[in-house]
Amino acid sequence: MHPAFSVVFFTTATGAGYGLLALLGIFGGFQIIPADFWLGIVGLGLALGLIAAGLLSSTGHLGRPERAWRAFSQWRSSWLSREGVASVITFIPAGLFGIGWLFFGRTGGWVAIAGFLAAIGAVVTVCTTGMIYASLKPIAQWHSRYTLPAYLIFATMTGSVLLNALLQSFGVASIAVLALSLLITLLGWGWKLATWRHNDRLEIPTTANTATGLAGGTVRSLEWPHTEENYLLKEMGFRIARKHSAKLRRITQALAFWLPMLLLVAVFSVPYPFAAVLSALAAIAQFAGMLVERWLFFAEAKHTVTLYYGR
Predict the structure, then answer these.
(1) What are phi and psi of 292, to 5 degrees?
(2) What are the residues whose beta carbons fall under 8 Å from the beta carbon of 75, sequence distance 6 or more?
(3) Are 189 and 249 in contact (CB under 8 A)?
(4) Cα dist. 162→165, 180, 182, 264, 267 in Å?
(5) Structural domains of the chain, with CATH
(6) Cα–Cα distance between 125 and 94 in angstroms, integer?
(7) pLDDT, tens digit, 9 for 90 and up, residues 233-246
(8) Total-model pTM
């Protein structure tokens, strides 16, 4: 599949944003993190800012962005539409949670309920995003048991590393958040390795014969039905060399998993402000690594429509 940057940024930014929002709602509601005004305004501002930036970026991949609102009407049958509806609904409890935290200086009581609802909305929205890809049967690399959990794991991972960086920066570090960010990053690495192993061993049953319905012999394309690449080949026939894929996988592991884990381990043993600097570097490196991971997610996926073009 063609890895358009607008969609790459969308899935990375909204995943981190919803992950951070969910954790703020949960940890705030349970009083694990303090109801500090500036922590709230920066944390919620960053979470909602990432979500808004990602959603706006996604419209850049549409042929007619001004018609994006029409997608909301197809929620009965479209995961894309359900994602849009869930994302808008989530802003309601998130807004109430923010009002309670910032204007009333509290995260308990009704504010905690709003925070929990915002966390549920964030989880549901991430699930709908994952299902957009997991439900696509023509793309075997996505239509697997690994896709949906990956979206949830990576959202929690990037959100927790961001939250840890915020808490460390404000001098209100939480061992629980730091431990969670380290463990979920380790889980994310393991899940990504398992996904790559599954995809590399994948045997796609569809062939040119089954795609065309022609039995007997070997079906092959003598010539293209057109003289240059069309929309299908540009969007769904993207090809990446094996050596480039291997290199980008190493970059993904280094930036999204290895480096953040090393920095987070070091945070346990250094005082403020060094812990804050290391935590910020871990968050920045991981976000960059996840952009590469998302690019590979699209670039390595193969749509069965390319069988009609001899690929």
Answers:
(1) -65, -40
(2) 81, 82, 84, 85
(3) no
(4) 5, 12, 12, 12, 14
(5) 5-309 (1.20.1630.10)
(6) 13
(7) 666 667 776 788 89
(8) 0.90
